[in-house]
Amino acid sequence: MQHIAFIGLGNMGAPMARNLVAAGFHVSVFDLAPAAVASLVEAGATAAASASAAVQTADAVITMLPANKHVQELYLGAGGVLDSAKPGALFIDCSTIAADVARQVAQAASERGFAMLDAPVSGGTAGAAAGTLTFIVGGSAAALQQARPLLEKMGKNIFHAGEAGAGQVAKICNNMLLGILMAGTAEALNLGVAHGLDPKVLSDIMAKSSGRNWTLEVYNPWPGVTDGTPASRNYTGGFGTALMLKDLGLAQQSALSANAPTPLGGLVRQLYQMHAQAGYAQQDFSSIVHMLQPGLQTPAA
Predict the structure, then answer these.
(1) Which residues have a Cβ under 8 Å from the Cβ of 123 and sit 6 or more positions away?
(2) Residues 156, 8: one domain?
(3) Do residues 205 and 233 share a domain?
(4) For residue 259, is it left (φ>0), alpha (ψ between -120 and 50) or beta?
């Protein structure tokens, strides 16, 4: 596949599309934000006047969108992807949405003769930029095999979770756990600092002890502990609180539909709801530490 349409150039989509351009693919891009499109054009992509125009001659269509309604409108709406894509095009939706919606769109695509994968990602903006994302894929093995040359240019790990919708289920399980770990890590660090411990020293101790986890080692929520994290730039960039709250809501919906108890998932969703309402919706989700220590700022260099 040589011609790729990429729709959705936000914090994750833009670097993913940029990696495809760097790999030599002809990439047509579309986003509602003209500046995002312009940035990709500077990197070598081709601007499309609309989503419909972007997909008309594309061999594969990759989408990275905020929520259920955006995916449904783009694929199922009049003049959308299903109406505009050329026969045989492969669809890869990297958005994090409800599994039922992923299955609905995949079924509609199948009825029109298209193969579709739900392929949400893990790894954050740093992973997107570095091309080291983890893809969590739902759909047929044949479609995944077709998609691999593209996914391998954007990610390091590719997992086949199962049939349509399975990628979304696995992703929301992961993100529910991520939210729990972030809130717990913030609590543990705040407790230590309240007793006079240096947060970096405490982080190093816990990273070599039984409390070790990804948020502690890679995405530390305490400012000044880990270079390059959102916490060290006043919680800008990264994975927004509003997006984490959305994913935690998806997890709770999924839990209810399967009658699977998730008491910690429910609690951390409430915490992030309060955090968002307190004015932190657009800050990185690691800013949950502000619930415990309001006003934390990145230390001066």
Answers:
(1) 132, 133, 134, 155
(2) yes
(3) yes
(4) left
Residue type, 82: L
Q: Pick from 163, 180, 199: which residue ends a domain?
A: 163
Q: How far apart are CA 71 and CA 199, in angstroms?
A: 41
Q: What is the dihedral sign for C-alpha 265, 270, 276, 279? A: negative
Domain-embedded: residue 135: yes
- In whole angstroms, give the CA distance from residue 255 to residue 266: 10
Which amino acid belongs to residue 159? F
Nearest of 185, 45, 20 to residue 31 by alpha carbon: 45
Find the domain containing 179 and state its range: 169-291
Q: Tell me if 87 sits within 8 A of 97, measured CB to CB.
A: no
- What is the CATH classification number for the domain harbouring 95? 3.40.50.720
Do 174 and 112 fall within a single domain? no
In a domain, 299, yes or no: no
Active-site residues: which are they?
Answer: 171
Give the C-alpha separation, 178 to 264, whole Å.
11
Going residue by residue through the chain, which has 301 residues, state the pLDDT in tens, using 9 for 90 and above: 589 999 999 989 999 999 999 999 999 999 999 999 999 999 999 999 999 999 999 999 999 999 999 999 999 999 999 999 999 999 999 999 999 999 999 999 999 999 999 999 998 888 999 999 999 999 999 999 999 999 999 999 999 999 999 999 999 999 999 999 999 999 999 999 999 999 999 999 999 999 999 999 999 999 999 998 999 999 998 889 999 999 999 999 999 999 999 999 999 999 999 999 999 999 999 999 999 988 776 655 4
- β partners of residue 118: 93, 138
What are the Cα distances from residue 168, in Å, to 6, 66, 84, 159, 224? 20, 14, 25, 12, 34
Rounded to whole angstroms, how far apart are CA atoms 23 and 26? 9
Within-domain flag for 70: yes
Say whether both 125 and 19 belong to one domain. Answer: yes
